[in-house]
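Input/output pair, single chain:
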Amino acid sequence: MQKVIDGINYWIKRLPEEYKSMSEKEISNRPLPNKWSKKEILGHLCDSAINNIERFIKIQYEEPLYVIQSYNQNHWVIVQNYQDRSLDEIVNLFQALNKQVVNIVKNIPNEKLSNLCDIGNNQYQTLEWLIKDYLEHLEHHIHKQILIENRLYGQN
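Output:
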């Protein structure tokens, strides 16, 4: 779990720096009408943290099996109005939520990491898998939608 903790801590520090290097236009631009802006992607990562905090806690104590409830990601982004909020506010939320994720993960007893959860479609995974998947999801959005476009288009 230390690798996951280190990965999340890295992004807590690094991602704000990346966003501060971008223009307001760059972070607010939607590449297509039905695609999220970089501000909205950061907001989505906040929503992911909110949902996973609950999961990481409940999987440790719910019996006999915790069932993962999905959430409508697009509705969450729209309802929370990330597009019209200040970048600083979203960055602060991202940092605070992910610090809480790290705190939870640090305090999970090793024997709880093997607790199973139902992730849907007759698939079961361990809490450990879910935590690793959280970091993979975070890094997927960062590398594929935030940093890659910044590197490709940042020189304009």
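The CA atoms of residues 135 and 143 lie 12 Å apart. The two ends are 40 Å apart (CA to CA).
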